[in-house]
Amino acid sequence: MRPLLAVSTAIDWLNEKVGNVCNVLVLAACLVSAVNAMIRYAFSYSSNSWLETQWYMFAVVVMFGSSYTFKRNEHVRVEILYLMLSERGQLWLDLIGTLVFLVPACLLLSYLSWAMFYNSFIIGEMSNNAGGLLRWPIKFVLPAGFFMVALQGVSEAIKRAAALRGEVTIDAKYERPTQ
């Protein structure tokens, strides 16, 4: 189980770094939005590329921030049944739900969205708006984001399996295994 926990730690580290980038992107999107609005009202000038840049940053925050949110156990969970279970029951429910539903669904969505990105990349798709940006980089965010959530799901499954075996305990706030 120790090698798997090392893999889980590596996945957690990666998603922590991705989350830090997303935190910066939230600030950057706010700044771009504010500057764009000021320039538009002060100088009657606006650019579609700035508007699309905001949209792209928001898409990155949503798609990549979801794996970071999952890592920190701040995701939405239907807790009606969950809270009635013992700690061991919660671990089992998390493990089964992650392996049966979350990881397969995210991998399927990543696979299905890959063709959309790839076709856009091959043709060098551009925005239809004047001064717009390339579309394929943002279309890559969709399969990559779903893959990152699936990867974090694998990490969470490893931690739950180790906790069920009594090898680690789970810090409820940040979902970190403690020795």
UniProtKB/TrEMBL annotation:
Cell compartment(s), UniProt: Cell inner membrane
Domain Tripartite ATP-independent periplasmic transporters DctQ component: from-to ranges: 30-161
Keywords assigned: Cell inner membrane, Cell membrane, Membrane, Sugar transport, Transmembrane, Transmembrane helix, Transport
GO-annotated molecular function: transmembrane transporter activity
Membrane association type: Multi-pass membrane protein
Record PROSITE patterns: PROKAR_LIPOPROTEIN
Chain segments annotated as transmembrane: 21-43, 55-70, 91-116, 136-155
Record note on quaternary structure: The complex comprises the extracytoplasmic solute receptor protein and the two transmembrane proteins.
Biological role stated in the UniProt entry: Part of the tripartite ATP-independent periplasmic (TRAP) transport system.
Protein name: TRAP transporter small permease protein
